[in-house]
DNA sequence: ATGGTTGGCGCCCAA
């Protein structure tokens, strides 16, 4: 038996319910973790999502910005939220089957990679540090943990179209890359994207809206990730990150990243 | 050389 888990920055869930339906039809994820839902809880489109087969849903949203959700075909046994740095709705956790699934939306960090002049960049780095501390304090390395999300950082050289040209661009600076790798290393997470796609090969999950033809130069970045703790290592079955979804009608700038896991 | 586009909301902000 196999379970498919997707993570997707959908950039407004209400605007893209038709894309969610198409994802279910063509890829049949059992669980979908969404970021940037951009909707307050009272307006979350529960009924439409239930009709797609996701009858177990948890969400944490706010007006205009941020917002996360977990949609599941399987029962959710428990849920909770973590607030790091401030009250932004950037995390939700669901206990499904024998694992705990954490869905994060790490702050984008603004344009200027300098904490002295850009408070958004400072917030991003603080958020990373507090994530690391939370797992060290609250979870054991042999717990069954899955961490997914739009982590807004491309840690490896081939996670961006040009590591040299992006070395001072927020999402690929040294301090961000090290901050993300520290969380991976401290908790001994497995980066499933790079378990199945060799680090010598380019792998992207995001292409800017600002390039009219995203395929022409293929200037992508790998900002979306699925990590698993060590006890789940032998259950990994493969990943899917279909770039063609970037071409669907009125797309998000991110495509879903999916993991298949034995259950 | 410092663009370019999108979404939500409301006459700009964040990504």
Structure description:
It is globular, with a radius of gyration of 17 Å. The protein has 263 residues and is an alpha+beta fold. Helix 3 packs parallel to helix 4. The protein is built from 6 helices and 14 strands. The protein has helices at 17-27, 46-51, 119-138, 174-187, 192-196, 214-217, and strands spanning 2-9, 31-35, 56-60, 68-72, 78-80, 91-96, 99-105, 145-150, 190-191, 206-207, 220-221, 224-228, 236-240, 257-262. The protein has a 6-stranded mixed sheet. It binds one DNA strand of 15 nucleotides through loops.
Task: Chart the SSEs and their pairings.
Layout: E1 2-9, H1 17-27, E2 31-35, H2 46-51, E3 56-60, E4 68-72, E5 78-80, E6 91-96, E7 99-105, H3 119-138, E8 145-150, H4 174-187, E9 190-191, H5 192-196, E10 206-207, H6 214-217, E11 220-221, E12 224-228, E13 236-240, E14 257-262
Parallel strand pairs: 1-2, 7-8
Antiparallel strand pairs: 1-14, 2-4, 3-4, 5-6, 6-7, 8-12, 9-12, 10-11, 13-14
Helix pairs in contact: 3-4
This protein binds one DNA strand of 15 nucleotides through residues 11-12, 15, 36, 38, 63-65, 108, 110-111, 120, 152, 208-212, 250, 252-253.
Gyration radius over CA? 17 Å
Shape: globular
What is the percentage of strand-forming residues? Answer: 25-35%
Number of strands: 14
State the end-to-end distance.
6 Å
Q: In which range does the helix fraction lie?
A: 10-25%
Strand order within the widest sheet?
A: 3-4-2-1-14-13
SSE series: EHEHEEEEEHEHEHEHEEEE
Give the structural class: alpha+beta
Query: Count the helices. How many?
Result: 6
Chain-averaged pLDDT: 98
Report the sheet with the most strands, covering strand number, pairing sense and barrel closure: 6 strands, mixed
- Flag low-confidence runs: none
């Amino acid at each position: 038996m196999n379970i498919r888990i997707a993570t997707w920055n959908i950039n407004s869930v209400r605007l893209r319910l038709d894309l969610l339906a198409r994802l279910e039809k063509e890829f049949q994820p059992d669980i979908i973790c969404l970021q940037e839902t951009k909707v307050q809880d009272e307006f979350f489109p529960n009924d439409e999502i239930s009709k797609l087969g996701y009858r177990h849903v948890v969400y944490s949203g706010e007006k205009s910005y941020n917002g996360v959700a977990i949609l599941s075909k399987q029962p959710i046994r428990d849920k909770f939220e973590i607030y790091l740095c401030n009250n932004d709705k950037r995390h939700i956790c669901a206990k499904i089957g024998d694992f705990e699934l954490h869905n994060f939306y790490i702050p984008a960090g603004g344009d200027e990679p300098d904490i002295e002049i850009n408070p958004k960049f400072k917030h991003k780095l603080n958020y990373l540090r507090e994530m690391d501390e939370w797992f060290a304090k609250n979870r054991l390395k042999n717990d069954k943990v899955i961490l997914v999300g739009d982590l807004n950082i491309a840690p490896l050289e081939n996670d961006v179209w040009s590591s040299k040209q992006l070395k001072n661009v927020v999402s690929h600076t040294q301090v961000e890359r090290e901050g993300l790798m520290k969380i991976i290393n401290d908790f001994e997470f497995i980066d499933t994207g790079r378990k199945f796609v060799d680090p010598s090969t380019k792998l992207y999950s995001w292409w800017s809206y600002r390039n009219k033809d995203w395929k022409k130069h293929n200037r992508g970045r790998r900002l979306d990730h699925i990590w698993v703790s060590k006890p789940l290592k032998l259950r990994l079955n493969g990943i899917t990150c279909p770039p063609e979804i970037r071409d669907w009608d009125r797309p998000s700038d991110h495509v879903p990243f999916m993991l298949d896991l034995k259950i």
